[in-house]
Amino acid sequence: MVGSIVHQLTEGVGPEDIEKAGLGAYYTDHGVDVYPVSASGTPWTAAYIACKGDPVANLQEDLAAEQKARATYEKLIDLCRDDPDVLDPLRFLRQREIVHFQRFGEALRGVQDKLAEKKFYMSNCSKKMCDNNNSCNCQ
């Protein structure tokens, strides 16, 4: 959605105006296409996705990502105070990040509760599982 907003705002803008806005290098590399890059010019990479194979660590990463996105939307809202056509989608996106954060928090609590439960192990003993001396090794 942010990419669509940027595209709509830059549609019809000429190279001279882009250069005046300090975006000449970006325009040289990408034209007016949306290219996923941070405000400082660092391109997006898959390294930003931190998966550890641990549900608690992964959910903590998800929570942090939602808070970072929320903070970014708030900064964008601060920069676009006068344009309701930009502000409304940004406010929607910010609220969506808040809801995602809440849902990930609920999932984390559920995982932590499940991990804290006492473990019960059961065995179905049959004579096939016991040794030839008729003594059961299943117990």
Task: Give short descriptive properties of this protein.
5 helices; 139 residues; 58% helix; 2 domains; elongated; mainly alpha
What does this structure look like?
It contains 5 helices and no strands. The chain is mainly α and 139 residues long. It has 2 domains: 1-48, no CATH class; 50-117.
Secondary structure elements and pairings:
Elements: H1 2-10, H2 15-20, H3 24-30, H4 55-79, H5 84-116
User: Multimeric state of these chains?
Assistant: single chain
Class by SSE composition = mainly alpha
Helix proportion of residues, in percent? 55-70%
Report the uncertain regions: none
Indicate how many domains the architecture comprises.
2
Biggest pleated-sheet summary = none
The string of secondary-structure elements, in order, is HHHHH
Q: How many strands appear in the DSSP assignment?
A: 0
The whole-angstrom Rg is 26 Å
User: How many distinct helices?
Assistant: 5
Could you give the distance between the termini?
Answer: 60 Å
User: How much of the residues is beta strand, in percent?
Assistant: under 5%
Broad shape: elongated
Mean pLDDT rating: 86
Short summary of the structure?
The chain is mostly helical and 139 residues long. The model has no long low-confidence stretch (mean pLDDT 86).
